[in-house]
Amino acid sequence: QNLRSRKLSPERIRGVLEGFAWAADSRHLFYVRQDPVTLVSGRVMRHARGSDPAADAVVHDEPDRTLFVEVRPSASRRLVLIDIHGTDTAELRAVPADAPTEPAAVVFARQPGVRLHAEHLGTRWIVRTNEGAPLYRLVAVPDKTPAQRDTWRDLLPARDDVTLDAFEVFE
Q1: CA-based angle 151:127:121, to the nearest 5?
Q2: Residue 59's closest CA among 12, 23, 24, 26?
Q3: What whole-number distance in Å separates Cα of residue 100 and Cα of residue 92?
């Protein structure tokens, strides 16, 4: 909807899942196309407002169809995040919100048996992971060195009697 005129745009993108993220320019929209046969997540797409959705660019096409793909803005609003996860693995990719045509870079690569959920805020990642912690732990990771495990710092160490289910980040 145009907030000035209060008129709805005639633009429509059909066959998408519920998650989406706007780029910083408010012109590019990231979304996940739903597979029309299996109804599971398919490709991550980038739409330029005002263009034909048939011409949308593929940002990520996950070859492993057993994994679920979601797109969302980061808490910092500096990144568009692509979450890829399954029963026993996870991966996180990111596109700079101020450079929406850049390719999606792998931030946390998938590893068999390792699950994680990450959020970006300020100059760091906050990550819930089962790596070295079957019931999960929460770690802070510098945003410049996410792959270097020696830079990870426990915020909530693993415990044998408590499962860390989820977390939220705030300024």
Answers
A1: 90
A2: 23
A3: 16
Task: Kindly state the helix (H) or strand (E) to which residue 49 belongs, with its residue range.
Answer: none
- Rounded CA-CA distance 33/41 in Å is 6
| Cross-strand partners of 80 | 73, 95
Number of H helices, E strands in the chain: 0, 12
DSSP secondary structure letters along 102-129: SPPEEEE---TT--EEEEEETTEEEEEE
Q: How far apart are CA 47 and CA 65, in angstroms?
A: 23
What is the side-by-side strand order in the sheet with 68-73? 68-73, 79-85, 90-96, 105-108
Q: Which of 62, 2, 8, 6 is nearest to 26 (CA)?
A: 2
Q: What is the DSSP letter of 55?
A: G
pLDDT digits 0-9 by tens, 22-79: 999 999 999 999 988 888 888 999 999 999 999 999 999 999 989 999 999 999 999 9
Are 51 and 35 in contact by the 8 Å Cβ rule? The answer is: no
